[in-house]
Amino acid sequence: MKKVLSLLLPLIGITFAFYWVKISANKPTAAPPLNPPVENNSGQTIAGSGIVEAASRNITLAPPIPGQVVKLFVKENDLVKKDLPLYQIDDREQRARLASAEAEIAHAQASLFTAQTDIANQQAAETTARAKRECFCG
């Protein structure tokens, strides 16, 4: 009996260990993204900040906001003029924030109008009550 247990218990332990490794290796699937990724129509991708090396000095090139470059206006070795755009960054997120901020402004203006109307109604009710009181008391 001891020989059977001494062979059976390690076998059960090894089987359990293999089973445990197998079920713990199953990773949950990733959730789909909230927004679809930006399409790259150019076939080339550029990401990150960099340094453009000029003949006389180094110039740091970095976008004012993070994002994916969706359009390039220049090519390698092109001469560029001051204040002309070099690239266009995907601005969907900024446009969504702007729309949200404009909606909040409209909501705040509506709340202000409602409050001003309530004040005017209260003032009119107070004036009416004073006039009635003066008619009865006077």
Largest sheet: 2 strands, antiparallel
The overall average pLDDT, rounded, is 82
Secondary structure category: mainly alpha
Shape: flat
Q: Hey, roughly how much beta strand do the residues contain? A: 5-15%
Low-confidence stretches: none
Share of helix, binned = 40-55%
Strand order of the largest sheet: 1-2
Counted by DSSP, the helix tally is: 2
Ends apart, CA distance between termini: 115 Å
Number of strands: 4
* SSE string, helices as H and strands as E: HEEEEH
How many discrete structural domains?
2
Give the radius of gyration: 36 Å
Give a written overview of the molecule.
The protein is mostly helical. It folds into two domains: 42-90, no CATH class; 91-138. It is built from two helices and four strands, in the order αββββα. The strands form two sheets. It has a two-stranded antiparallel ribbon with strand order 1-2. A two-stranded antiparallel sheet has the order 3-4. A hairpin with a 4-residue loop joins β1 (50-53) and β2 (58-61).
